Amino acid sequence: MITEPYTSLEDVVQDPVFPDVDLALRRGRHIDLDDPEWFAFLAETQHWLETFYRRFGCELIRVTDGYFYLLPSGDRLGRRQLTRGEMLVGQGLALMYLDPATLKASGVVPLAQLLELLASLVGQDRLVATLNARRSRPRDARIAEETARKEVAKALRGLERLGFVERLPDDLLRLRAPLMRFADPVRGLTDPARALAQLVERGEVTLEDDGGDDDGDGDETNGSDERDGQDAEDAP
After folding, report:
1. What is the DSSP letter of 186?
2. If I label 20, which of 29, 33, 53, 224 is the partner at 20 to 30 A Cα–Cα?
3. DSSP class of 3
4. φ, ψ dihedrals at 59, nearest 5°
5. pLDDT tens digits, residue range 125-173?
6. Phi, psi at residue 134, to the nearest 5°?
7. pTM for this one?
8. 210 has which bridge partners?
9. CA atoms of 59 and 174, how far apart (whole Å)
10. Mind listing the pLDDT tens digit for each residue in 42-99?
C-alpha cells in the first residue's frame, strides 16, 4: 500500500524543503522542472499550499508549460514589478525561447544573440534609451553598445533571480519555461513568435505583477536604479 507523504498542512510546512520554496515563491521566483526537488515538492503539496497562500492574498499558479509561481490577489504579501530593462530583455528571451533553433540547442543561447535580437527589433538608440531611461544617452556608438550590454546584464540578473533564465559560463544563457509568461498576450495566434516580435517593436507587451517582497527594484513605470553600484561591479 502506498502511503501519502503529506496528510495535513502541518506535514507540508514541516518538510525541510518548505522554507526555501516558500521564501523563493514570496520573492517572486518561478519554479520549474529545472528545479526538480522544489518542483516535485510543489506538485505533491499543491492542494495544501493553494489554501495556505490564499490566506496571504495570493494564488499558487501552476502553468501547463511546467512551472509554479505566486500571483497576488491583494496587497498583503506585496508586489514586485519588473523594471523596463527586465521587461524588454524578458520579451526578447521569450522570442528566442519560441525559436525552434533554441529547442535544438537544449534551450542554451549566446548572450551576443540576445543583444543582436534586441538591437534589430527596437534599434540601438531606442534600446539604449529604454534600458537607460534615467541617464543621458551616449553619443558615441561604441559607448552606447557597451551601455546596452551592461544594462542587459543588469536585467538578466533580475530575471535570473525570478527563475526566467540561468546565466552560464562563456556568456551563454539557459532559457527556462517561465519565459512563456511574456508570450501570454499572443497565445493561440497562428504565428505567436511574429506577433510577439511586433509587440516588442511597438513596446506593447506587459507582464502581470509577480508576487514577492517589494525590494525597490521597480515602480509603476520605469523601475529604480538603487542597485546600480552593485550591478556595475557584477556585469559580465
Report:
1. G
2. 224
3. P
4. -110, 130
5. 777 777 776 655 556 677 777 888 888 999 999 999 999 999 999 999 9
6. -95, 10
7. 0.80
8. 80
9. 27
10. 999 999 999 999 999 999 999 999 999 999 887 766 666 788 889 889 999 999 999 9
